[in-house]
Amino acid sequence: MTTLLLAFALMLVIEGMLPFLAPKVWRETFRRVIEFSDGQIRFIGLSSMLVGIVILTLFR
């Protein structure tokens, strides 16, 4: 459980870096994502999950 909480905390730190360091870029990125179709957003989500699983597998 501790590892899961640490991973979640690290994710929040990483996710918060772009809006903190470059808010205009972050806002523009979300404007573009809003225009994506559901299929494109699902593909991005699936790709992200697969990359995460591969990284976890390699480093465990």
Structural write-up:
It contains three helices and no strands. The chain has helices at 2-21, 23-34, 38-59. The protein is an all-alpha fold. α1 packs across α2. It starts with a helix and ends with a helix. Helix content is 90%, strand content 0%. The mean pLDDT is 93.
Question: Could you give a quick summary of the protein structure above?
Answer:
With 60 residues, the protein is an all-alpha fold. It contains three helices and no strands.
Order of helices and strands: HHH
The main β sheet shows up as:
none
- DSSP summary: helix tally: 3
Helix content: over 70%
Straight-line N-to-C gap: 16 Å
- Percentage of residues in DSSP E strands: under 5%
Count of spatially separate domains: 1
- Inertia-based shape: flat
Number of strands: 0
Extract low-pLDDT stretches: none
Briefly note the structural class of the backbone.
mainly alpha
Mean pLDDT score: 93
- Rg estimate, integer Å: 14 Å
Based on the model shown, name its key terms:
single chain, 60 residues
Topology (elements, then pairings):
Blueprint: H1 2-21, H2 23-34, H3 38-59
